[in-house]
Amino acid sequence: MAVAADATAPVATVRKKVSRPMVVAAILIAWLVLFAVLRGRQTLTLAAADLTGLHRWFNDVNDAIGADRNSNPIFLYFFNEIRLVIDNLVTFIQSLISQPTGGRPVPQIGWLGVVGLTGYVSWAVGNWRVALLAVAGFTFLGLQGLWQESMDTLALTLSAVFVALLIGIPLGVWAGISDRFNRIMTPFLDFMQTMPTFVYLAPLTLFFLIGPASATITTLIYAAPPAIRITAHAIRSVPETTVEAADSLGSTRRQQLLKVLLPMSKRTVVMGVNQTIMAALAMVTIAALIDAPGLGKTVVQALQSLDVGTAFNAGLAIVIMAIVLDRVTTAAAGREEAARRSGSRFLAWRRPLLIAGGVVTAVLVYLSHTYVWAAEFPGQGGTGSAIASAADTATNWLQDHLSGLTNAFRDAITNGLLNPFQTLLTDSPWWLVGAILVGLGVVLGGWRAGVTAAVCVGLLVGTGVWSDSMTTLASTVVATVLVMLFGIAFGVWMGRNSLVDRIVRPTLDAAQVMPPFVYLVPFLALFGATRFTAIVAAVVYAAPVAIKIIADGVRNVPATIVEAATSAGCNTWQIITKVQLPMARSALTLAINQGLIYVLSMVVVGGLVGAGALGYDVVAGFSQGELYGKGLAAGLAIVLLGVMFDRITQAAARRTSA
């Protein structure tokens, strides 16, 4: 009997695995049938200028807060004080490197001093190659005619990173040494990292107004989770035997932390600083929507006026700054190990050279503080004008010669995939779509994911922007499908070929460094201001993470299994489709999860270039006071979509790997 039971177990497992896709197919077929009967009924459509009671209530709350801001004790002694501290910090750093203050026509440290400091710090924490890159990169920012805008962006980024690390590293250490605190923090960090960058803007302006201080507070809140999570991981990764050895020698908890845990996790913590800086830079550029100065503001204004040349020039400056900051912090994380491997004879001279370099840097700072020629970047930004002109010329050429091809591609995806799916979502009764989402959540992720989906659907209805939410959902799903097609194609190629992986992976790593804004510019030139532009930009933005996850999943399939399939006579296609992809299904599910989250964050940013829906609602809420409540509700809807996507796909990933 035991043998018979064991023999039937695989059959039952197969049936269970086959039944899930069949149930999903049955749900989708039922949806199509009911859509044909009920199309156009109870769709909860809301015109662009219309407001619901919730939106008006949000407007009233905003007005009431504005009226009581300087009398309400909570604002007077808490929110206003926080804003004042952050504002003073930002103003101080701006006065150092970007804005004239104290009757001076230039900042305290001019361009020559900033470039010298950048090179010296890059050399001190990294190496001479990184220092050369940093000096060349910052000098190029000036040649682009964007020195002050770049320094404003850097000032806000440094302010946000300083406070984020001041808060994040201690919390990360606490989470690393305390299981209870780690369990408490993990759901909050998951939630914060699930939320698209757009979502942070609206609610925080309610408490901190619009301006650089609010932009910095928004940025530090967005950038703090990587610092907390990676620091906690670093602390927890220290071998237990090392901690036990220190404990056996009579070390106190404080001594273990300062002498063992932190020194041994230093490299990982520095990588956490890298991720915090990258997150802060991405958020600072988007915070231009709430009047943050710098390169992001230039990009936003150019995108809104469809000035591709100016947007490209400023976007290039953002990319350069991101590359410099990324390379410097990455080199800092691996400097000691790289130095040991190199065995260079110059290591003995490093300290004297650093002292000499410090003296030279001090002289450059003094010159930039004292003389106008060393403070104001020379020239009129001719390089930037040439770049903008070349971008405009390329845009015109593309539109004149490739418009037939690009328009055909755009129309094929839009009319063949996006429009039908969007119609299915927006013209179905709201309760039918909600039931489908809940049903898919239960089938794919289990009853808990279904409950989460039900709660999110109910709250989405309550936001009053159901139709716009469905439009955003359609764009997100279509973009995610395209991401997975690219992810599987390139991921399998990389996973099966180590040479391809070594060639392609650095490009993917570089693509993940760039802030989301930058991706809109080239596709604006190709496809104009349409929702398709946002979809293509979202695909390019999200594809690198999906490709790398799938590549790692394919590579981790045991070589013995692949060899067994080969010896059984399977060809390459059969090995990929019957062995490697099925065994990497947990990686595929994780790629879908990350792809959805990345796509959602980019699709809503596409509201700046004609994507409409929730992204447009949020942007309109900042620019038109009467639509603030609707914009806030749209931000909440984005959160709900993100949470629903994340919970269902994570639960599906766990069930797949179980």
Describe the structure.
The chain is an all-alpha fold. It is built from 29 helices and no strands. Helix 13 packs parallel to helix 23 (about 515-525). It is globular and about 75 Å long. Residues about 1-15 have low confidence and may be disordered.
In short:
With 658 residues, this protein is mainly alpha-helical. It has 29 helices and no strands.
Features:
single chain, 658 residues, mainly alpha, 29 helices, disordered N terminus
Q: How large, in whole angstroms, is the Cα Rg?
A: 27 Å
Major beta sheet summary: none
Shape: globular
End-to-end separation in angstroms reads 27 Å
What is the element string, with H for helices and E for strands? HHHHHHHHHHHHHHHHHHHHHHHHHHHHH
Uncertain runs are: 1-16
- Total beta strands: 0
What's the rounded overall pLDDT mean?
84
What structural class should be given to the helix and strand makeup?
mainly alpha
Helix fraction, binned, reads: over 70%
Helix count equals 29
Q: Beta-sheet strand percentage? A: under 5%
